[in-house]
Write a structure and sequence with these properties.
With 124 residues, the chain is mainly alpha-helical. 35% of the residues lie in helices and 7% in strands. The longest helix is centred in the N-terminal third of the chain and has 16 residues.
Length: 124
């Protein structure tokens, strides 16, 4: 029989403890899989000691710059891994556009935009 699922805070705390033990280093960064987090996750993550939170493409933060909140750091979509140097490196055009000629990042960008449309702090 399985034990009851952990709360999000317990999961963060336990995962952080295991990783810190294995890496023998303090952890302060949390990358949301698959590129999406929530306000609750930021609050709970801070409670267990995370300080920087990495999302996917964020409509309100197309890049990372000075003075930006460490709670909303955009990281590259997995599609861009194919652009790293080495054998088989993909052309930028092949990464950005799918076979139908549509921008391949549209889905992740839309998800990020929806998160920030709900967040009142980003209203103008």
């Amino acid at each position: 029989m399985r034990s009851p699922p952990l709360t999000l805070e317990e999961d963060f705390r336990q995962a952080k403890s295991v990783l810190q033990t294995r890496l023998d280093k303090p952890l302060r960064h949390l990358a949301f899989p698959p590129f999406r987090g929530t306000e609750e996750a930021i609050v709970l993550g801070r409670a267990v000691g995370y300080r920087w939170f990495y999302w996917g493409a964020l409509a309100c933060h197309p890049g990372n710059g000075p003075g930006q909140s460490p709670a909303y750091i955009a990281r590259l979509d997995r599609l861009f891994v194919r652009r790293l140097p080495g054998v088989g490196r993909a052309r930028l055009r092949d990464v950005l556009f799918n076979d139908a000629g549509h921008w391949a990042c549209d889905v992740e960008w839309q998800k990020g935009r929806e998160v920030f449309e709900k967040d009142q702090r980003f209203r103008i």
